[in-house]
Amino acid sequence: MRDTRESRLLLVLLIAIAFALITVDIRGGEDSPVDGARQAAATVFGPIENGVSGAVDPIGNAVSAVRESGDRHDRLAELERENTALKAELGSDDRSRSRLKQLDDMLKISGRGQYGIKGAQVIAIGAAQGFSWTITIDAGADDGIERDMTVLNSDGLVGRVTTVGPDTSTVLLATDPDFTVGTRMEATDELGFASGQGDRPLRVELLNGKAEIKKGDRLVTFGSQADKPFVPGVPVGVVSRVDPSGGGLTRTLSVTPFVSFSKLDVVGVVVQAPEKDPRDTVLPKKPKPTPTPTVTVTVTPSASADGLNQQEQ
Fold it and tell me: How far is CA 117 from the centre of its chain?
C-alpha cells in the first residue's frame, strides 16, 4: 500500500476501532458482546496453537546442525547431529518424567476429593483479545469440557474455564483481577471471597471482621451452587499477612497461592463434582516444625579459682 493521506487515515481508523473493541470487551466481562467472536477465534485458532505447541515441543524435536559442504566437515556435522539428538532425547525423558509425576500427584488430589477430572496440557499463555491472565489448554468440547468448570493441578486451584472450542479451552487464572472465588478457612470454617491481584498475593475478604486468623492458616474453595464454576474443597493458598480488623465488617487477608502460575504444565478440568464436600481432606499435610537446637553450656572451675579456694581454707 502506498503511503498516501487515505492510507494513513485508514490506519488511524483501524487503530481506533481496535482500542474501542478492547475497551468494550474489558468492561463487558463475562457478558462481553465480543464473546461470540472470541469463541469463534478459539474454534479457528485452537488447532493452530495445538499444532504449533507440538511442533516446538522438545520431546519430539531435535535441532539439526548446518555445516558447509566438503569432506573435512562431514564427520563434524554428523557428530553434532548425533549430539543434538542425544540431548533432545535426554531432555524428553526428563520432561516426560516431570509430567508423569505431575499427573500422578494430580490424580492423588482428585482421589482424595473424589473429583472426576479430564487431564490437559497448557499449550499457550495469554488471550487473543484483552489483557486477562489466561492459559489455553489442549482439551475442549470434544473432550467433555464446558464453560465454568473448575481447573486444578497437583498443587491446588488454577482457575476456571471461560471459553470452549472443539479442541481447546481458555482458562481464567486465579491471579486475574476479575477472578473471584468463595473460600473457607481450614478448621475454623470462616467464609470469605478471594480475588486475584496479578503477580501479587490473592486478596481475601472474610465475612467475619472479628475472625481470629494468623499467618500460616490455609484456605480451600467453598464451592458454588450446582458446583459451577467451583467445586468445594480445592486448596487455594496460605495466609501470608493479616490486616488489622479496625472494627470493620470484614477482615482482609493476603494469601499466597499453592499453585505456581509461572510453571503451569499439566492441569485437570473437573468434569464431575464430588458427591459430598471433601472439606479439608485435599489439603496437603502440614510440614512438621523444625526443632530449635538447644545449646548446653557447662562451666568448669579454672585452676586459679581452685588455688584461691585452698588458700582460704
Answer: 17
User: For 135, which DSSP code?
Assistant: E
Give the tens place of pLDDT for each residue, 205-218: 999 988 999 999 99
Hey, what's the torsion of the CAs at 246, 247, 249, 251, to 10 degrees? 40
> Which tens digit of pLDDT belongs to each residue from 4-51?
666 666 666 666 666 565 555 555 555 555 555 555 555 555 555 555
- Whether residue 234 is predicted with pLDDT greater than 70 in this model: the reply is yes
Phi, psi of 123 (to 5 degrees): -115, -10
Give me 103's grid cell.
499427573
Listed in sequence order, the residues at least 6 apart from 10 whose beta carbon sits closer than 8 Å to its beta carbon are: none
Q: Which residues contact 270 (CB under 8 A, 6 or more apart)?
A: 110, 115, 116, 117, 149, 150, 151, 152, 231
CA–CA gap between residue 200 and residue 275 (Å, rounded) = 34
Grid coordinates belonging to 102: 505431575
